[in-house]
Amino acid sequence: MKLFFRKSGDSPTTIIILHGIFGSSDNWLTIGKVLGEQFTVYMLDQRNHGQSPRSEEFNYKVMADDLKEFIAENGIENPILIGHSMGGKTVMQFAMNYPEAFAKMVVVDIAPKYYPVHHSMILQGLAAVDLKTLKSRTEANETLKRFEESEGVRQFLLKNLWRNPEKNNEFDWRINVPVITKNIDVVGHELENEHSVNQPVLFLRGAESHYIQPEDERKIWELFPNYEIQSIEGAGHWVQADKPQEFIEIVSRFVNS
């Protein structure tokens, strides 16, 4: 599958960034631009997100294969992989399936374990927005308020709203809501083909987030023995959005080390 991407910078060292669920390469433009001053940075839209193709198949195996295809098509050698949340699981799956195909990895606020479904209300909210009659983002925000109390999360979701010229300029979602809804449990699944990978891996967590717990460290060590965990104070699950400066500094240090 040919993924949509954005590119910043031109350097021998290449970074590939994968967003989380409901996200896109758009969310990473600011950080990608700053990292692009030192590295070549590719920001990808994963399948069923952003401007990448849609598919009924939606799991970590196919998303890892999408990444492999992207690396091959663009002639990239030994990239540094960065993945946030769902994107973090994609890069971990990729690392275990293709251990020789990358140099280092940064996994942002996710562990290689099973997570119960916790996006049901958001999906109900997205489905409740009547795209046929929708007049504005403000109206969509009002609908989402019934399902998601955080203004920040709602604004993040609303970045996926656009006017689709193929549908008479009606509002449309840039995410494949039906397929994501059908496969939402898959997003929380444990990874397949689990075995240890020896490249350096940085797990970067938000100190205010609950996604990586102390008891997860044993599993991390089993799969990625050459790992380190760092926390960023004052950051929640969206570490890169909450503390962009600290995020960039830690990632740059890790890539250059």
Automatic annotation (TrEMBL):
It comes from the Bacteria. Keywords: Hydrolase. Pfam families: Abhydrolase_1. One of its GO terms (molecular function) is hydrolase activity. Gene3D superfamilies: alpha/beta hydrolase. Residues 14-244 form the AB hydrolase-1 domain. SUPFAM superfamilies: alpha/beta-Hydrolases. This is Alpha/beta fold hydrolase.
